UniProtKB/TrEMBL annotation:
Its EC number is 3.4.16.4. It catalyses: Preferential cleavage: (Ac)2-L-Lys-D-Ala-|-D-Ala. Also transpeptidation of peptidyl-alanyl moieties that are N-acyl substituents of D-alanine. Keywords: Carboxypeptidase, Cell shape, Cell wall biogenesis/degradation, Hydrolase, Peptidoglycan synthesis, Protease, Signal. It comes from hydrothermal vent metagenome. PANTHER family: D-ALANYL-D-ALANINE CARBOXYPEPTIDASE, TRAFFICKING PROTEIN PARTICLE COMPLEX SUBUNIT 12. Belongs to the peptidase S11 family. This is serine-type D-Ala-D-Ala carboxypeptidase.
Length: 307
């Protein structure tokens, strides 16, 4: 586990990393908290490498860990070769994947999100300001990250909260810092003006109940592991529909949390969200007599459905 109080010894590789820096020095001790601030507020590539080496032993191994975790988050169109985002063959990320990463950051590490709203940080007596200029001009913007290379242009991932609704925007490939801020502001304003967010279902709430075979209980409840929110065009809530895909035969034993089906949310006939339906409780296997009777019942059921 990584702690903000951990001490990192700066390597020569981290010190030599190009691009924007927080100006750490070789063999000096720096806390993880300072490196996190240097990475987020100052866009320090040297801080990125120092953290990667501390966590994984090398930047290469850390990049592999990034790719593994990205897949878990559903970031299926991105591929990482380093910890900094500096140009490398095959290193790429999409706007949608950046938005998924931002969402995960907010949901999984809310106690660390405040770093993204900090407007300045001083290290080694060098004060640097956060390059996300929207933090200074839009009070509803509370974080996320800038980026720039010649290949990618000026990029900006931003999150803002208005009237209890949070939106994440991602802009890539603009020509200047001013342009990325202006285009982001337009996108955020558009989103809040024309879209609305609804909480559809609560985690652990029964959505459907299905018959279960060879179990101590006759039925099992299915629901969602997480709360389900949806952001849709204003006025379109009544066009939402939900349906489920669940195998016709469910057989015990089944552990709580096991995915047993899929919940599909449709808007105007188009699928917009798919979420796994999981068992809300454990279904224990019945005794041998009940299992035998259910086995005979299943055989007749299969025979009756034979075409």
């Amino acid at each position: 586990n990584l702690s903000l109080d951990d001490i990192v010894i700066v390597s020569e590789k981290a010190w030599r990393t190009g691009g924007s820096k927080m100006f750490i020095e070789v063999d000096k001790q720096v806390s993880v908290e300072d490196l996190v601030r240097g990475m987020i507020v100052q866009s320090g590539n040297d801080a990125c490498v120092a953290l990667a080496e501390h966590i994984a032993g090398s930047e290469e191994v850390f990049a592999s860990m990034m790719n593994q975790h990205a897949k878990k988050l559903g970031m299926n169109d991105s591929n990482f070769h380093n910890a900094t985002g500096l140009p490398a063959e095959g290193h790429l990320v999409t706007a949608n994947d950046v938005a998924l990463l931002g969402k995960a950051m907010i949901n999984e590490f809310p106690d660390l999100y405040h770093f993204y709203s900090e407007k300045e940080f001083t290290f080694n007596k060098i004060k640097q300001h956060n390059r996300n200029t929207l933090l200074y001009r839009d009070p509803t913007v509370d974080g996320f990250k800038t980026g720039h290379t010649e290949a990618a242009g000026y990029c900006l991932a931003t999150s803002a909260m208005r009237n209890g609704m949070r939106l994440i925007s991602v802009i890539m490939g603009t020509e200047s810092e001013k342009a990325r801020a202006n285009e982001t502001q337009k996108l955020i304003n558009y989103g809040f003006r024309f879209f609305e967010t609804h909480k559809l279902y609560r985690a652990g709430e029964q959505q459907v109940q299905r018959e279960i075979w060879k179990g101590e209980d006759e039925n099992i409840s299915l629901g969602l592991a997480e709360d389900l929110f949806i952001t849709i065009p204003k006025g379109s809530y009544d066009q939402l529909e939900a349906n489920v895909d669940i195998p016709s035969l469910l057989t015990a034993p089944i552990q709580q949390g096991t995915q047993l089906g899929t919940l599909n949310i449709m808007l105007n006939g188009q699928a917009v969200i798919q979420k796994p339906l999981v068992a809300l409780q454990t279904a224990e296997q019945a005794g041998w007599w009940s299992r035998s009777m259910d086995g005979i019942g299943l055989w007749f059921k299969s025979f009756g459905n034979d075409e």
